[in-house]
Amino acid sequence: MRIVTLAIMGIAGAIAFGAWRRKPSSSAPAAFAEGQGAPGNATQVRDAGPDAMRDPCKEPWTEVEEDGDESFPASDPPGNY
């Protein structure tokens, strides 16, 4: 009887794990809005600005945040500060 209980618990756990792994996710890669990025390109760099980000911003961007995002991935800081 104990082995049957363990088998049922194992099956239920496997079903729950399978359902958890199949939860829907966005088709966009992390940090990219829909339509951003080039599929198959190993060097993924998104467009600058909050509109190009997958997750919405909670607060409006400041000019400093926009300048920093526009300068990425360059190593030089923005010149208008």
Secondary-structure map:
Elements: H1 2-21, H2 63-71
Task: Output the keywords.
single chain; 81 residues; mainly alpha; 2 helices; elongated
Structure report:
- By secondary structure, this protein is mostly helical.
- It has a domain at 47-74.
- Helices cover 36% and strands 0% of the residues.
- The radius of gyration is 22 Å and the shape is elongated.
- The mean pLDDT is 77.
Summarize the structure.
With 81 residues, the chain is mainly alpha-helical. Helices cover 36% and strands 0% of the residues. It has a domain at 47-74.
The general outline is elongated
The count of strands amounts to 0
Q: Which consecutive residue ranges, at least 5 long each, have pLDDT under 50?
A: none
Largest sheet: none
